[in-house]
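Record passed on underneath.
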Amino acid sequence: MKKLFLMITTLLLVLTLSACDDLCVGNECAVEEKDEVIIEPEVCELPNIVYDGECKDPATLCPTGEVYLNGECETAALVCDENQVLDNGACVDKVEPEVCDEVGTNLLIYEHINGHGVFVDREAPLLFEYELATYVKYQLSYLSCTCRDADLNYWQMMYIEVYKGTNAIKTISFGSDGGHYTGGMWGDSSPTPGGKTLEDFENEFIPWLIAQPYETLKQISVFKNVEYNGITNGVQIDAGLDDSGVDMIDAYTGSSVSTNNMIRIVNVLLAYHDEKY
């Protein structure tokens, strides 16, 4: 009986000791207090960042074509530099809008002369300018006739092409809507007070104008070989005969508003063309 009691007592002691973590005093266990382990956060050198507890280069975190931004991988095309914009899925440099001068470079000034010899500076808007390999296309609007009734005083539209380098005129044309005088026509009534029609101008006067070299044309202010309202040309005009066999200068005397202002506006445009091209 005593043997059995001793065995039970020994077994209980062993179990008690095994339940103690560290230190035992008698039948009591004193648990040893352990210091708390503090894990310092990972510190990375830029441009690396902490990702999954490790320092990693953001460029390696995302698949090809994406970038790491604000904790996520985003399509690279959606993230552009501040000086770029997204264009068709790609980042391209921003194009700053062109700033025009206050007055603008598309406004030509010419000295208009009416049938009474009165000179007035007028504006001629250059509405279209397109450069090709060997010549430039222009479209400009100017006022020729001012001495007719109000319903005949229109701004006309001239289409003119000028060769680069030589300043030679390639072509001149005016629009028409079937013969009615409008702002798209050539600048005077048809026929003029002198009896010349738009067709006459297209067949006779405009071909003469086109044939003039710039060095000659810029010395001509009026379609005259004599003084006209205080103007004398720097060269003599040899215009030949019109279709009826009359000297062209005499034949177009009654059409001076159209002839003179057409010469003047062409000279102003050629001066602009010469300086630019």
Notes: The first helix runs from residue 2 to 19. Residues 99-104, 177-183 have pLDDT under 50 and may be disordered. DSSP finds five helices and 13 strands in the chain. Residues 107-276 form one domain.
